[in-house]
Amino acid sequence: MSNNVAYAIVKAGGRQEKVSVGSIVVMNRIEGEAGDKVELEPILLVDGDKVTTFADGISATVTGEIIRAERGPKIDIIKYKNKTGYRKRMGHRQQLTRVKITSIA
């Protein structure tokens, strides 16, 4: 693996994601239409042998472009109590956004 690959760890919808230029990230829904630019908050930046953390004061920005809004897989929620006839069935699909990272500067 090459040492001069730049990547960053960013906050992305309540999680942390490792991103580099050209990578695609699926995160919790963010406001915006397809084609809009978004800025993500970097926590860690690695550029070759140089590592910069949030505590050191990162001056870089990570920008991306919204590709599309989508929904996650269906999650079935089933509640059941024995001998009482109680059955409850629900479902959930998480709202997601697919983002392509355009630059780390």
TrEMBL record:
Give the molecular function GO annotations: rRNA binding; structural constituent of ribosome
Q: Which domain of life is it from?
A: Bacteria
Tell me the InterPro entries matching this sequence.
bL21-like, bL21-like_sf, Ribosomal_bL21, Ribosomal_bL21_CS
UniProtKB keywords: Ribonucleoprotein, Ribosomal protein, RNA-binding, rRNA-binding
Pfam families attached here? Answer: Ribosomal_L21p
Please give the subunit comment from the record.
Part of the 50S ribosomal subunit. Contacts protein L20.
Q: Which family does it belong to?
A: Belongs to the bacterial ribosomal protein bL21 family.
What's the protein name? Large ribosomal subunit protein bL21
Q: Which organism is it from?
A: Flaviflexus salsibiostraticola
Classification from the root reads: Bacteria, Bacillati, Actinomycetota, Actinomycetes, Actinomycetales
